[in-house]
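Supplementary Text 2. Reproducibility record for the structural model of the 98-residue chain.

All settings were left at their defaults, and a single model was retained for analysis rather than an ensemble. We include the record here because the model underlies the residue-level annotations in Supplementary Table 4.
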Amino acid sequence: MSESGNSEIPEEIFQTITAKGDSYFLSDYFYTQGIVLESKGDKIESIANFEKACAVNPYHFKACRKLIKNYQDMGQNEKTDSIINTMSSLRSRVLSSN
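Retained model, structure tokens:
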């Protein structure tokens, strides 16, 4: 998207897709929508989509890392720390179950 500079094509595709399904599909849907919006310079809506991705699937660490970076850039330290702590807890839970 950003390499070609053509963000209209992904946006057209998203208009044909319904945001419904299991948490894995939805988190990928919102994450990808956030990437598309980010490539268009729409920071507010991209952050909203990254938040949705993390809300429906807290294990979507790519979306959570995007949120961390955006929150850090905006000086939102409490939100940044909250996501970092959640990710650490989830990683610990996964590692301890192995």
